[in-house]
Design goal:
By secondary structure, the chain is an alpha/beta fold. Helix content is 20%, strand content 36%. It is elongated and about 55 Å long.
Length: 184
């Protein structure tokens, strides 16, 4: 990867974080991502992020938050990767898989999704209730999780899918082999 490509990737990640933090609205985010892609010089790339301070906290962002950003790639999170009460997942022209089955989840978890021309898959454990309020815009949102009576934990999934696919499912429990590890 050459210098300009590296700066371009850094700028995309910086813009994605700013969008997740609420410092950019969707129109600003889309415009700046397009400008970064079309930029021919490092100065043009820098002009897309110069007004965004690196560590500016959002007053709305909970302290207990995890951000997952996937731009033009693939990210698969499995195992005990999430302990926060809030998570934000941004997928832009990529695929994100969030497997929550092995996580020690809090009683109430909120996942905010933004998927633009991407694919997001969420696998939930059998003992949780799921409230799905993802808004599809030229997108498909498949919630394959039946209601769980008496569930003590709740996962709320909010956000927007634009020209994307979001799939929420509860896969069959994994088989346990002799070593005690699940087979996939």
């Amino acid at each position: 990867m050459n210098g300009i490509d590296s700066r371009r990737e850094d700028a995309r990640e910086h813009l994605s974080r700013a969008f997740a933090d609420g410092r950019l609205d969707s129109a600003q985010f889309t415009d700046r991502i397009e400008r970064v892609g079309a930029a021919g010089t490092i100065a043009e790339i820098a002009s897309c992020t110069d007004d965004l301070t690196v560590n500016a906290p959002s007053p709305q962002k909970p302290i207990d938050d995890r951000s997952i950003v996937t731009v033009l790639g693939s990210r698969n999170l499995r195992g005990d990767w999430l302990r926060e009460r809030y998570a934000t997942s941004i997928t832009l022209l990529g695929q994100t898989t969030l497997d929550l089955r092995d996580c020690e989840l809090p009683q109430d978890l909120t996942i905010h999704l933004v998927s633009v021309m991407g694919e997001c898959r969420i696998s939930v454990p059998s003992d949780v209730s799921v409230i799905n309020s993802v808004t599809p815009l030229l997108a498909e949102v498949n919630d394959r999780v039946p209601a769980t009576a008496g569930a003590r934990r709740t996962i709320r999934i909010t956000g927007i899918a634009i020209m994307s696919e979001v799939r929420i499912d509860r896969p069959e429990p994994r088989d346990i082999n002799r070593s005690g590890r699940g087979r996939r």
